[in-house]
Amino acid sequence: MLNGRRILLVIGGGIAAYKSLDLIRRLQDRGAEVVPVMTRAAAEFVTPLSVSALAGQKAYGDLFDLTDEAEMGHIQLSRAADLIVVAPATANLMAKMVQGIADNLATTLLMATDKRVLIAPAMNVRMWEHAATQRNLKALQDDGVLVVGPNEGDMACGEYGHGRMAEVPEIVAAVENALLNGPLKGKHVVVTSGPTHEPIDPVRYIANRSSGTQGSAIANALAGLGARVTFVSGPVTSELPGGCEIVQVETAAEMLSAVEAALPADAAVFAAAVADWRVASRSGSKIKKDGSGKLPVLEFTENPDILATVSQLKKGRPQLVVGFAAETDDVMANATAKRARKGCDWIVANDVSPETGIMGGAENAVTLISKDAADVWPRMSKTEVARKLAERIVGAISDG
Ligand code: C5P
After folding, report:
1. Which ligand 1 atom sits closest to the C-alpha of 322?
2. Does the residue 1 lie in any domain?
3. Listed residues 180, 211, 242: the one ending a domain
4. Looking at 157, 173, 280, 376, which residue is catalytic?
5. Of 92, 145, 308, 376, which one's alpha carbon is 20 to 30 angstroms from that of 351?
6. Do 195 and 160 share a structural domain?
7. Which of 101, 112, 105 has the alpha carbon at shortest distance from 36?
């Protein structure tokens, strides 16, 4: 599955562009988000309206579309994708890619990206067999560009041979292969997320305002880089991440057991807002008003600290343990002390004062605290925080 993955689809100008409409749908069926970019020639074959209607978002066409402040810049657009797919990749587009020509939005994005690129060439058989195209194909492959197809068959121009664009299921399979064999391939990461619910009696519980949005985004980003992710989540209404093994729990004690059962892992990211205390005087039946006016008194006991427990494991500690510090006061000082006290490697610190709108919101402003550094990240979407964190995790645990 491609849940949570974002694919930038560059549609080139060829008759096979009609297949790109189906490609958008099939990638979405697998859970991916498709951001379409069309060359001017592509718009002669399929309309931007059909493309944007299917993609459910704007079909970018012109570099100057992006000059509006409200739009993403071309650098951001190319970076915000997990993979760039060029389908159909015409002979002209391939040649421009080889030469580094950036004369429209599509080619500029291809120059600006730091992500992998998959092309699905489509052209007349003579153009495909031409020495120039074959030279360009080799050059692109040498540059690390992934290629799917073309296939042999009848062509729209009436000829027969190599040059038909790969069929949509083949392109989808190539996309999955490219995304699932990322830099965290073979790595196992445990992510905790959401709040915990600590029962008072069979119908009441103590909870907190965590939505699980940041945890889900982190799991998605790690899975997007090829990691096997075990996602241990408290009760949430937000969307669960795709492509992960999901373990749903309710209490802190259950969360600890689920994490221990999921180990060994190469890394663990504890994004859950675990309740510090549970009700020790938990009642087996619903607590009722007895008419005497006597108020119930709840007694608390401390919950296990999952982050500290895993950080301090003598045997089987993950290579990298990351905790979160949601603070309302003295964020840096508290978070730095927390890192040392719990024994984790990194703390992602954030200010969850109500006026920040962070708890339960779509954005986050964090500082990544490690033993030797504190990196302040500007306020950005929780998805971007997740991507940045996942990239840092690659740097810390990948073999490559
Ligand atoms: O101590 P505090 O709750 O502020 O610590 C926050 C960090 O510790 C988070 O990473 C959270 O997931 C983790 N934690 C935990 N188990 C607890 C309490 C917090 O894993 N019982």
Report:
1. 10
2. no
3. 180
4. 157
5. 308
6. no
7. 105
From the number of C-beta atoms within 10 Å of its C-beta (0-12, 13-18, 19+), residue 130 rates as middle
CATH code of 14's domain: 3.40.50.1950
Radius of gyration for the chain, computed over Cα atoms and rounded to the nearest angstrom: 25
Instruction: Tell me if residue 344 is catalytic.
Output: no
Q: How many domains does the chain have?
A: 2
Mean pLDDT, the chain, integer: 92
Same domain, 84 and 12: yes
Q: Is the pLDDT at 154 greater than 90, yes or no?
A: no
Residues 153, 201, single domain; the answer is no
Distance (Å) from CA 325 to ligand 1 centroid: 7
Mutate to test the pocket of ligand 1, among 196, 305, 347, 359 (most ligand atoms within 8 A of CB): 305
Which residue lies with its CA nearest to atom 9 of ligand 1? 324
By residue range, what is the domain housing residue 131?
6-180
pTM beyond 0.90: no
- Separation CA 251–CA 274 (nearest Å): 8
Separation CA 198–CA 312 (nearest Å): 25
Are both 105 and 232 inside the same structural domain? Answer: no
Ligand 1: which residues within 6 Å by Cβ? 192, 252, 270, 272, 274, 276, 303-307, 323-325, 338
Give the confidence band of 35 by pLDDT, cuts at 50, 70, 90.
very high
Ligand 1 atom nearest residue 307's Cα:
20
The ligand 1 atom at the shortest distance from the C-alpha of residue 323 is 10
Q: 321 Cβ partners below 8 Å, 6+ apart?
A: 267, 268, 270, 307, 310, 311, 343, 344, 345, 346
- Give yes or no: residues 231 and 380 share one domain: yes
Same domain for 110 and 250:
no
CATH for 341: 3.40.50.10300
Q: Give tens-digit pLDDT for 272-288.
A: 999 999 999 899 999 99
Q: Which atom of ligand 1 is nearest to the CA of 303?
A: 21
Helix (H, G, I), strand (E, B) or coil at 122: coil
**Domain contains 332:** yes
